[in-house]
Amino acid sequence: QTIRGVNSSVDPLWARQVPIVLIKDPLTWMVSMCHAPYAATFKGLHKQACPSPVRVTSTSVSFAQDIPGRQHEREEYASLVHFWSRWYRAYATANFPALIVR
Fold this sequence. Notes:
globular; two-stranded parallel ribbon; 102 residues
């Protein structure tokens, strides 16, 4: 079993734990991402229009890998809204239990 395509094991740790996922509403989350984008970079996003769910704000995210010799993997999203949706969908559709709080 993998989550986000990188974490797996024969005796998965998640089998003995329940992740707690706190979900921000999309607009509040986008404001947070504009101020502290972490591994995300935005194309077409201007600070004075941040956030803008209607403007084209293609988003590129680089997830660090803990595997020596492996390159960072970049994922592309059409907008911040697409990124938010895909990020939380990974938890909602996972085949292990999770407590999701909004």
